[in-house]
Structure formats: structure tokens, C-alpha cells
Amino acid sequence: MMGMGEIAPRRHTSSARKKVVKNPNKVEVTPVDEPDTVSLEEEGDDERIPSLDSLDDLMTDLDEKRTSTRVQALHSLIILARHCILPDRVWDGRSATWVAVLSRLAHRGDDEEAILVMRLQAILCATFGEPAEALFQALAEDTSPKENPELAAAYANALAMSAFCCCTMPEHTVPPLLERFAELAREWEGPAREASIRGWALVATLLPRRQLVLQPRWFHYFTRFLDDDDLEVRQAAGRALALLWDARTRHIEESGDVAFDEQGLAAPAGGVGSTSGLRAHLLEHLRPLARISGHEYTRKEKSAQRHVFREIVETVEVRSRPPPPHPIPVHSLIMVSAPGCCPDVELEMGDQKVTFADWEKLTRYEAFKDIFAGGWKVHAEANEVVRGALDLGPPDLAVRPKTPLTALEKRLYMSPSSPAAKERTATRTSDRIRRANQTAFGPEDD
Predict the structure, then answer these.
(1) Is a pLDDT exceeding 90 seen at residue 142?
(2) Using CA atoms, how far apart are residues 338 and 307, in angstroms rounded to an integer?
(3) How far is CA 30 from its chain centroid?
(4) Measuring CA to CA, which of 61, 111, 167, 346 is 20 to 30 A from 176?
(5) Compositionally biased, Basic and acidic residues: which spans (predicted)?
(6) Is residue 145 within 8 Å of residue 105, measured between CB atoms?
(7) What 8-state DSSP symbol labels residue 295?
(8) φ and ψ at 19, to 5 degrees?
(9) Does a structural domain hold residue 25?
(10) Phi, psi (5° rounding) for residue 114?
(11) Cα-flanking dihedrals φ and ψ of residue 39, to 5°?
(12) Can you give the pTM of this predicted structure?
């Protein structure tokens, strides 16, 4: 206890933030971030964004002998490519180096390194488009077994994205790729099977609708995966069926080359099959999944599955309307899209709002968003490949989003104790006093 006149010892303060864990006697001290640095809070990106000037150093680190150095360089390159639009000079003149280095790292035997390489290849293809076709060729020629499920899923995602963005002759390249994805979906399980089905759906959007719908076997092929034990596989198969059905009905609407089956439903001409029979087959498998119950799945899984499959069932039901009884021209009958045929997804970019209302655009949107993760909005705003695939127009016509404030700017302008906040408070106080005086005594005379 201190006596009167004694001075208490001064407590030394530190610029470090103290974090108390469960043990009250143990204190963990973590340094405070510098105010002018930018850290990422998005999912999957928990590091700071590297500078574009460090690209050469990161490329050099990919040739290091230490695996940890190469892995860290790959992490940094992925974060940089996700959150920045890499200029064309990054690829021009270095394409051979990129392909050689990434192909070598993908076959060194380390699964973690190979997974990162696959993710980086997908991002590069989605950034540069057709000039990066060499990456697609390298992935297409890779037939090595993928025993690691995560590696197999990363390979399927990279192959699908590279084929979609870099394929120059889809009419000759896509059909063999669809067969390959179908074979991978049969061989693999879990996340790898889901990635294969999603890859099939993304690549299938490159085909003309008539070429796609004239193969009804795909409807029966994906129906088998609706009974898979994995929730993500069931949802991917359901979305693939919705894509096929939407493509079938839109082809009928756009071409007018139709014939009506025994129940009066429109079907593509050319011996494709009965629409009513195919519709009944799909609804027989889809409706139980939209009303799932029981104790074999968690509440979260049942809720997610019901949400997805109700939209898919609505697609099949609404886009199968019979013609009215009175005869009218075919084009007038089916050119109007049915409401509610696809879950609407609204994308906000500054003051611009875009809505995707068909399964083809929705499939592409989900694939790009999965590849770019936290940097998706940056690429939706200024990436020519992404905007071209989603019909958003050239980047220079886009409305630029508002630049977010940094941590330092927030403290300087938004903190209650900042000079700017105090000045605003004083100004508003004087304005209130002036308005009150004018109300009480009338306007001041000049």
C-alpha cells in the first residue's frame, strides 16, 4: 500500500496488442499491423497482396530448391493474380517460361505444390484468355494419375477453365473434353467427382445449343449421380441437368424447329425424343431431392439441398408449358421466356447492377467466382475475358466501383476522435445554433 506523498511507478505502454488466452498467466503479444499496409480478409486469402513489382522475384523463387520457398512463391502469385489484373506484358514474351516452369512444378511429386500450380494455371487462363492456350494444351496432355482427391479436383477445375477461356476451336475440342470429364466423374469420388461434373457443365456452355441437346444421353448420364452420398456431387449433377434442360428449351424457342409430342409439349425436331417422357423421368428423380427429410443428413445439408433442387425442379416444370389450344405461329408461342426458370443472381459493380437469369451464364458466373475467390469483383469489373464470357460489355464502359478506404484513412476520417470528425462536429453544431436563432428571431439583417 502506498503512503501519501509517494509517487506511483509509471506504467510503460507498448504499441503491441495483447491477447489473453485461456490461461490468465500466459499472455501472447502480437505486433500491430502497420497503418499503411493492406491485409486481406476474404476467404482463402489471409496474406497481404504482393506488389506487381515483386513479380520477377516471385518467378525466380519458383526455381529455388527449397519446397517451402516455391510454395510460398506460388501462394503469393495466386493472391497477386486474384486481386490485381495482370497486364499483358506479364504473359507476352514470358509464355514459354510460364509453361515450362509450371509444368515442371506440377510433376515434382509434391501434392501441395501441384495443387497450387493448378490453381495458378486456372487464374492465368481466365486472365489472359486465348494467348494462354499453351497452358490448356499442357493440361490436356497431362494423363498422370491423380490419387489425391484435392489434386484431382484442382486439375479438373484448371482443365475446365483453361478449355473455356483458351480453346480456339470449340467445335472440334469440346466433344472429346466432355467425354473425358464424364470418364473422370465415373472414376473419381467426392470433391474430384463434383469438380469433374462442374467442369463438364462449364465446357458444355461453349457448344451451340442444338449440338448439345441432340445428345439426350447426357440427361440419363447425370441422373445416376443424383443418388450420390456427397451433397456437393448431387447439387453439381442437378445443376448440369438444369443446364441441359434450359439449353433444350431455349433452342426450341430460338430456332422454331420443333415438333409437338403426344402431350402437346414442344420438342426439338430431328428425332431427339419425347419431351413429356424426358420431363417425367427428370421430375421423378428431382422432386424427392427437393423434399428431402430423415436423419441420414444434417439439418444444414437438407436445407442446402432443398434450396438448390427446388430451383432445378422449377426450371423443369416452368419451362415445359404446353401450347395454348388456339393455333398461333410457333415463334409467337415460345419466344417469351418463362418467369422463374432460373434463380436470378444479381451482381453489383459500383452503381451498375447485372442480373444473370439463365443457367448458361449462371454456370460461367459460379466458375469464375470460384477461381478468383476474394478478387472476383476486381475481375468482374476490368477483366476482358470474364466480361466477354458474361456479356457485360468492354471494361472501359463499366462503372468503376468506389475505392475502399484503407485502415489509415478510416482512422483519419471516420474515427470519432479524428481531427476531421471534430471539425465536422463543430461545423454541424454551429449550423444547428444558427438555424435555431433564425427560427426564434428571424433572419439576420444585412
Answers:
(1) no
(2) 20
(3) 33
(4) 111
(5) 421-434
(6) no
(7) S
(8) -120, 120
(9) no
(10) -65, -40
(11) -110, 150
(12) 0.72
